[in-house]
Structures are given as C-alpha cells and as structure tokens.
Design a protein that fits this description.
15% of the residues lie in helices and 41% in strands. It is mainly beta and 963 residues long. The strands form 8 sheets. A 16-stranded antiparallel sheet has the order 32-33-34-35-36-37-38-39-40-41-42-43-44-45-46-47. A 6-stranded mixed sheet has the order 4-5-3-2-1-31. A hairpin with a 5-residue loop joins β15 and β16. α5 packs across α8. The radius of gyration is 31 Å and the shape is globular. The N terminus is likely disordered.
Length: 963
Amino acid sequence: MRLLLCFLVCCLLPALPGASQSLPVLDQNPPDLRWQEVRTPHFRLLYPRGLDSAAQRTAHRLEQVQQPGTASLGVVPRHLPIVLQNQTTISNAFVTFLPRHAEFFTTPEQGQALGTMDWLDGLVLHEYRHVGQFDKARQGIGRLLVPLLGDQGLGVGAVGVPQWFFEGDAVGSETALSRSGRGRVPYFGVGMRANRLAGRHFGYQKAVNGSFRDNVPNWYVLGYYMTSYLKTHYGPNVWASVLDKYYQFPFYPFSFSNSIRRTTGLRVEDLYQRTMHELDSTWQAGQQNLAITPGREFRVKAEERVFTQYEYPQYVTDSSVLAMKTGLGTIAQLVLLRRHAPEQKVFVQGLTNLPEMLSVGGGKVVWPEYRYDPRWRQRVYSELRILDLSTGRLTHLTKRRYTAAALSPDGRQLVVTLTDSSYHHSLRIVDVATGREVRILPNPRNDFYQQPRWLPDGRVVAVALRRAGKTLTVLDPATGQEQDLLPVANINLTNPQPWGEFVFYNSPQSGIDNIYAVSQRSGQTWQVTSRPVGAYHAAVSPDGQRLAFQEFQATGSRVLEIPLDTTAWRALPAPATTAVLSDPYAAQLSAQEPAAALVRPLLVRPDSATTPYPVRPYSPLRHAFNVFGWGVVQSPTGNSVNVGVRSQDLLNTTQAQVGVGYNQAERTANVFGGLSYQGRYPVLDLSVEHGGRNTGVYVDRRTPLDSLVRDRWNYTRLTVGGRLPLTLTRSKYLQALTLSAYYLREQVNGYDLPLRYRTDPASDRPVNAVQTSFSYVRQLKLSARDVAPRWGGSLLATWRTTPFGAGLNAAQFGTQASVYLPGIGRHHAIRLRGGYQWQQQREYQFSPSIFFPRGIGYVSFDRLWVGTTEYALPLAFVHWSVGRVLYVQRLRTTAFMDVAHGESRSLTTGALIQRDYRTVGVDGAVLFNALHLRTPFELGARFVYNPRTRQASFSPLVFNIQI
C-alpha cells in the first residue's frame, strides 16, 4: 500500500453518557457525485461518472492479473469491490478488510517511483497482491477466525506477519510482472545502498522497527530485498509455503520467523543478514573502477547525528541555492544555501505535495501543497504556492489540481501538469498575476507528463510517459508541435533542466542515477556526473558557470556544485535504450515468474482491443448497510466487554453497529445500537442503549459506614444529534474545527434505593438534556523527534442543559484552552492549559467537561477553575535491543503542575464551600517494539505528589499504541 498522506486531528467531544461511543468520522466524497458500477467476473468497480474510460481499462487489467497476480502465493482471491477515487490529488491506494475492499486514487505521482508504467496499471499489480496476501489468511486458523469474526478475522490471523512482508512482496510482484516496478528503480533503494556503502550496518531489530536518528529504509525497501532474496534462492512459491505453515497456528512469539525456519532453515534474522551480505557484494562490485566527479558541498546547518535532507536545488544568485530541508528533526522548509555563509531559513511550508522539484524564476519560487476540502476529505486539491523571495509575499492558486509547476524565467507564467477527474493528462500555461489558464497544450495520446521546465525560447521540455516507455519531449505552446529529444525507451527518465542548446536530465541507465545531457540540435548525449550513490536535480547558475545537484548520502541528501565544463562530460556513442540493473533480483524475479510473459504484453495493449463491460448507476443509499465483521466490536473498557455486528458501506457514508455488553463488576448486561450517517454536510448520529445496573449505596448518616443497600434496575438511553467536522489546514499549522449538538434522554425503572447518586436519573424523573460543543485546534506540524507541538493552541467549549421542563433539572457550561510554546531545547515543548466550569447540579450532575488535577479524584463544584503547566521533552533517542524480545527507540518525560479552585453552596445550609487543590508530578514513557511485532507501544508511569496531603502515588500509563 502506498503511503497515504493525511492530517488527522481528533477534537475531543466531552459527551453525554450516551454519546461517548460516537462512531468515528471517515473520509467522504461530496454528495453531488453520481456513482457508476462495473461488474466483471471477479471484481466490482465503483467510480464517479466521467471516469468511464479509466474504469473500463482498470477492470480489464484486474481480470488480466486475477490469477497470475497471486499464483505464486497459492491462492485465488474471492470477489473484490474496488473504489476509484478521482476527487483527490493524493497519489495512493490501499487494500483493507474493514470492510474488505480496495481503493485506487487516480492522480499519478510525479516522482521517480512511478517508473515507466502507467499509474493505474502499477496500482493493479501492487494492490492486487495485497488482496492475495490477505485472503491467504482464510486457511488454517482462519477457518475458525473468519466465521467467528467476519473479515476482520483476516487481520487477527495476520497479527504476527511483519509489514515488510506485505509491502516488499507486493513490490516484488509489480517488478516481476511488468517492465518497470520499483525494484527496477535505483532511487527506490538508494537509502539502503547509501547506508551499506557507508558502513552503516544496522541489526534486524533496528532495520525493521526504525530510528529517530538514522535513515532506516521503510518497509517497502527492506521487504522487497528480503522477500526477493528468498524467492530467488528458494523458488517463486517459497512464501506460499511460509504462510501455509504460519497460518496453521500463528499465536505464539516469533511464529512468522519460525515458519521461515521450518521452510528454509533460516530464522528471520538469518534471512536479513544473508540479504544484506548479497546486496553488499552487488553494490560494492558496482563501485569498482568508478571515476568520481569531484564536487563541493554547500554549507548546511543540520542537526548533529540526525538524518537531514537538502533537496531540489535551484539557483537564486550565482552563489546561492534555494533547497527544501526536511529530516527526522525538521519539518519541511525552504532554506538558502551559500558557499561562504551560514544556511538561512526562508519559509516553512504546509502539507507539501512535492513532485520532486522546485522552480525559481523572476525572483519567485513555486511549489504545490495539499488543500483539503473543509468537510469532504476525499476531495483534496493540489494548490500552487508562489513566494516572492525579495518581499516574502505569498500568493496562492486555490482549488486546483496542479501536481507540478515551473516558473518562466521572468516569473510571469507557469507551466503546470494536471490530471483531471477523467484521468486525462495535460500541460497547461497559467498566468501568474491572474491565475488564469491561458493555454492547454494538445495531448491526443494522453501521454503522462512529468516535471516540466521552460526553455529560453518559450517552449517547454518535459518527461513524457507513453505506452512503450519514457522520453524527453519539447512542446511549443504557440503551435502545439512536439519534438522528442530521446528515443522512447524503458528507462526511468526524470528531472529535465534546460541550459542553452542542452537539456540535463536524470537517468539510471548505468545502474546508478546520474545526470546526463542531450543536445537539442544533434541528439548527442553525454554523462555529466558520476557519483557513487546517485546525483539528482541539476540546476544551472544564472551566469552559466556552475551546475548544482543533489547527492544522496547516508546522513541525508546534500547539495553539491561543480564547474559547468562541457569538455569534462563523457560522450556516449548513442542515446541509451536500456538501463543496467543494479538490483540483483529484478531480472531473476521476472525470469522465474511464469505469468510475466503473459501479463507484460497486456499492459501495453491498446484500450480499443478490449470489449467494454456493462455499466449501471450505483446508489450509495441503497447500499448503505454492508456487514463486514462481528465479534468484539469495541475494545473492552474496564470490566466490560461488548460483542456485536459492524457495518460500513464502501463509500464511507454510513456506519452502524449493534451488540450486547456485559459488565463483570456489576454482573449486568446491556444491548446497544449505533448509526452514523456521514453522507451530508452535518454528520448525523443516533445511538440507543438498554440494560441493567446493580449498585449499592450507604445510607448511614455518620461513620462507620456499614449500612449498604443494593438494588438492581434498568436504564434506557437515547442519544441523537449531529457533528460538523471541518479541516481548515492551509499552512504549516494544522487546523480543525468541530461543532456538535446532541439530545439525550435517559430514564430508569425499578430504581428503589433510598438515596440516589446525582449522576443517575430518578425513577420518576428522566433526564432530557441537550449538549452543544465547539472545538478548535491549531498546531504547528510535528517532526518525528518532537514529543509535543511547539506552537499552537486549542479551545473547547461545552454547554449542557435540560431545557424542556420535564424531568430532572440541570445545566453546565465548561471551557478549556491550551497554548503550546517552544521549550529550551530543540524538541522541547511547553503547554499552558486553563479551564472554567459552571453548573447547576442540585438535581442532576453531568460528567465533567474540563480536566481536574492529576492524582486526585474528580470533585464536582458549582464553579471550578483549573490550570496546568507542562514541560515535555525527549530524554534520549536510542537503539536498545534486548535479544529478540524488545527494541527501545525513545525515552521521554513530562513534568507538570496542576491547580484547581472549586466553590459550591451547601444544599442544606447554603453556606459557601471552597476547596483548593494542587499536585505536581512527572510522567515517563518508553517507546518500544516487542517480539518483532510491527506495532510500537508507548508505556510509562506517572508520579504525582500532593503538597497539601503530603501523599505521593505511582500509576502505570498507556500513552499510545500506534496501530
């Protein structure tokens, strides 16, 4: 599954008792879309009207790979629904079993990972392999789990399968079955290659679980190499045998590693070491006799010993370069690098949608950023940000789908790439001053264009992806004429950069990504750079004397500079038509995959060679209920467990659950049901709960309290209302706003206790309450090493009342706010938090709407003021391994002081009662992985001291489980 960039801000709803189990808000499309459905023998495709051609093509591709795509796993997946999402500019796809379906996002990526294959074809090969991986879990223990739990049983059975297997095996499948695939793209594994060549040899625990200091390649890279090693040494069906053994009974430590050992004799650590040894041999051999192009690095200010990147260089003056800086300790920002002066921060970017390029022209720089529709999170724009480097003025081209852009030399025009909602690709010319599109360049073949740039004469050069491969092409906006500079070939060309009669570009044709040049006049090609790991993103100084480029290193990419001397270039006898494979597995994967010879020709077959499948309208409302799981539907809370049925439609408009619960402490049962309709602007929620209670109350007027009276009674609770969740992010600050309003009715019968808790309704007087709330969050983006936001704030206000004049009478208003500030250290943060709560609670007492000092049980007052100061910091970023059992990554702590002041009037005498509370304490937490499981846990403990009572307490804490 390709990574899905998304901002998730949870605005807490301090709910009424019945609203506490509100179903989560999912991502939806705008309701005015009209959906279509294509059914094939093995698939059902849902797509918005207007995407018909791409949907038909994808349907045929799926049928073509239906058996070949999973044959080596020994499984034929069941019928699968697939949703094509065309309202987003995020380049992504995923397969899930909650509910079981796949989603393909139709905007192609602009970067190197695309390779030479059509975007949707690549998604078909990669994601369908995931379908086979998941359906493999239906055997062995899955024969019991799936009937007991529904499709969510597939995930339970796969709990011990590492993520690197899922993603790496899928990358291997796309590589084996196509002419491209990420296994053939050197940039895909450049981080691993840089580490190994630099002598950074990590152990398996670190390689699989990650680091907050070093660049540890992701699951896709690690998994591709490890799964491919086993396939090439033990046969293409080896992982089918491993999974067969694993699913016999997976619920014991290191079960996946043991299944590999039973199949091959290797533990997972042995497999990792052998894979790394083979890669070392291949990559070291590639360094032999390599003549390195000398270059000088620009000065940078990178956090010591922390992976930091400087990418996409563009000259601003003859001696200064603009680059994008990112890293484990740095959020995305533009910086100015100079030869003899310190690095200078220019601008902190928002949610960047970088096409692996920046563009500077006319004293401005342009880049795209994601912009979410406030309500419909499946509608994501890609808007251009244009920054004037001299004045700092920022302008926006809003609500667009531009995925790459280049400024003309004078900064007055843009050439942009766009894939529309019909999967039609185009280059467009945009006026910077007005934002108006002045010309759309013709594209009768529907070529996909990458990373365009302006030529000095007003023409445009871009990478063009066609059925047969890639080329560099020059287009004339005035005439629409097109001229190819290189032959169309299966070579992953990227990053064109004009200079005079030449165009620089990136090519992996030697097995290592380097910068090449082609003459527009003669077609002669040259190799310009020769670097050990890879050189990318050529940029020419304004005086034409120097060439800057980005080189990947183990500590992060750096910007280098060389003299621009054409006599130092190595002339090539002819333009390359094939690329040398530096990867030791790609060719063998294809050679031993029987289906490769069948599938590869189909991927370049003309669309007109297939017969269209029938199409019919699809109504989301008619398919609102889609039961996919049963069993435990919520995590047990305290001494209670809930069992039931879950439903969610494929377009995320409707969620529902019904079930029964049992409270072991009170030995009572309840039934519940919940419904959330999210297909319109407000989210509409309904929940019903009916059950029993069994509690007791002491009726003594004085100590000792030894007169306990117990009783059983029934309650019925109805909650109905709505939420309006809005995403407002438009900059480096993540913003979200939620409005809500709910009605609660709770009544009891059989309540015979002589005294009543004010938190319970009376037997003859129900609760009829209304709650409204307002929640706003604005926080600076976090780097991986940040433990809390360093700038930002939040506000939460809640009003609860019983306005109907029937039943118990009560009211409550509560508000709390937080401010985040940077601490002393680089990743330290301060939070100042305050709150106020007023309530009328003579007859009924609502649950608290604000926080209370830690270490003290909540005490209800008519008026309550609270405040807290927190200081959070990381103590250490470590790589501690305890054998195979434990891997620790981070230690952090938070010191706090909480205060509160409460006032109430006595219900009997009317006297004013005042109380003050204060506690101080420290939280400590450890982030770790256990037993090679892919889910990190953060556990810790809290120490609290009460100065007034002089009492101290310790308590365990679960901070986070990163599923």
